[in-house]
Amino acid sequence: MRVAVIGGGPSGLVTLKYLARAHLSLDCDAIEARLFELEDSIGGAFTHRAYEDAELVSSKQLTTFSDFRCCADRDFLSATDYVQYLHDYCSKFRLWPSIELGAEVRNIQGRPPQGYVVEYAKKGGEVLRWRCDAVAVCSGLHREPNLPTIPGLNHVPEVMHSSKFKAKSQFGINKTVMIVGSGETGADVAYLAVNSPTKQVLMCHKDGFHFAPKVAHSAYV
Prior knowledge:
Elements: E1 2-6, H1 10-20, H2 22-25, E2 32-37, H3 45-48, H4 60-63, H5 79-92, E3 99-101, E4 103-111, E5 115-122, E6 127-132, E7 134-137, E8 176-180, H6 184-194, E9 200-204
Parallel strand pairs: 1-2, 1-7, 2-3, 8-9
Antiparallel strand pairs: 4-5, 5-6
């Protein structure tokens, strides 16, 4: 059996690993799996859409895979540390030979039981095809930015989606910054904004929100 895995983020890598080793624990023949990643490196959003001082909101105990624990001293990994962990994961389970980097999947044709043909392009423009029996789509939830439709937004001097935000220097000096959304990324960006030479920082959310420390310093909390 041959399986194509689309996406080289955490979900794609762990899918590749379990497919490659399925025959060791299940009553099945060895599976030939190949992972296709658009970028030149693995890691997904943690590599290509991370911002300055980004830190995971879940602890290393919850985030890392049960078959390969992280030995870092800190409980909450930085994006850089987590990407290094993913690289170590690929090396530990010898996944690199099955990973195609710089491979843009352009088309998938077919249906079961006949199988599928994955058409992908390499960085140099060469178009290749790989025939397989199944496809695992692991391209992630955050590949395409979602910009809300807000009347008058076109009159704002600068509008930036968080996927384009990399460093607090982008806030400029003595400017008013409004952050729409109060999720994990919104909270991180707000923290960077208030610690920058901005004039004012505003957060907007239609339902309201509560902030709490990531770590409780008291054992009685």
